[in-house]
């Protein structure tokens, strides 16, 4: 079996010496004083059994006596008391000097090694990772303490070997595993797999099994790896997948409901708006005409809300489709202006439309969706402006594949802290805005998604109390 051993006369051994039967040193070589704090004179006059930790003394004395009955060197681990009262972990390699009552010792300070082993053991417990090894020369298997815990067995009652380690797996997996470990060294140096195990107490667990092979002159000599309990990790993943599926189903149900209900409501709303228009053309008293106007505005506002909800449902379901047809940009802009012209006149606002000659009159895209964006931006500009001017600019972009538009107002403006959130769904600057001006907080978010899905861009610049400018880049051709 391969073991972590060093030659007896290794030049790296820190200290050596010659001791009598009573553990009193005859000679000492190396930094004994530096390691233990005692002077060399003190050490040479002190039987070392007086410095050995009480818990290690009996074992050390018994093994020390056994040294004189065997021609083979033995190794002893114990704790030696330093002059400051602390103990250091020491590994002794001891063998008898032929023909004498003295022994030669070679020692290493393994305090750091013991601490590292302790920390490694605790780290494995925290991470639920154990280690294992297989020696190809004798098929001996070694496990660390955490490996025993993961498999639900105890080292006092279970000794792993190349046969019984397969008893933790289902019959279907055993043959695969045997083949796996027999062929692994020939096919790859490293491997990683997940598999289910069955513990003696009836519990099951999922583990991640890693392996790596060591070769010597092309011959496989050693296989080692880790085993990690990933049952909790897999359960978390399972719940996340389940939660994701449930959320997607709930979202689909909501989206379908929004689409259906908004469609069902929009049909009678169109009838109401149509009847109001017909009513407005009949002979009405002034008071009746005012009532009809209120009913018309309320119906149109409700229809806009329904359209926003329907568009939101389509966006979430990724069912919003775009045409790519030739249309006149001027027509789109002026149709949007006509929709708000009456309100602009009622509020006594100025309206300026400036379309630069360099702007292509005919472009390719979806005129209905672009008009929807203009309608929303213009409606907001009029809604939030009590005096001043509404401006529409269309000009050539410095990016030749785009047309640039601006909708500028002299309204209430937007606080700087609200601008980063302005295009979020359902976002409104504050509750007083909603109470005073109405709206769902969907319009701008829908505009942004429409423009970005076309391949364009929308931004806003605003100064609170002075007005806002919404800047839109629209591609010349929607793909």
Query: What is the CATH class of the largest domain?
Result: Alpha Beta
- From the coordinates shown, what is the CATH architecture of the largest domain? 2-Layer Sandwich
What spatial form do the alpha-carbon principal axes imply? elongated
Overall mean pLDDT stands at: 81
Distance between the termini: 69 Å
> Might you state the CATH topology name of the largest domain?
Heat Shock Protein 90
Number of helices: 12
Q: Low-confidence runs (pLDDT<50, min 5 residues)? A: 1-13
Query: Secondary-structure element order, as H and E?
Result: EEHHHEEEHEEHHEEEHHEHEEHEEHHEE
Strand content: 25-35%
Radius of gyration: 43 Å
Structure report:
- Its EC number is 2.7.13.3.
- The structure is a single chain.
- It contains twelve helices and 17 strands.
- It is of the alpha+beta class.
- It has four domains: 15-109, Beta-Lactamase; 118-229, 2-Layer Sandwich (Beta-Lactamase), CATH 3.30.450.20; 235-316, Signal transduction histidine kinase, dimerisation/phosphotransfer (DHp) domain (Helix Hairpins), CATH 1.10.287; 325-475, Heat Shock Protein 90, CATH 3.30.565.10.
- The strands form four sheets. The chain has a five-stranded antiparallel sheet with strand order 2-1-5-4-3, sandwiched between helices. A five-stranded antiparallel sheet has the order 7-6-10-9-8, sandwiched between helices.
- Strand 9 and strand 10 (219-229) form a beta hairpin.
- The radius of gyration is 43 Å and the shape is elongated.
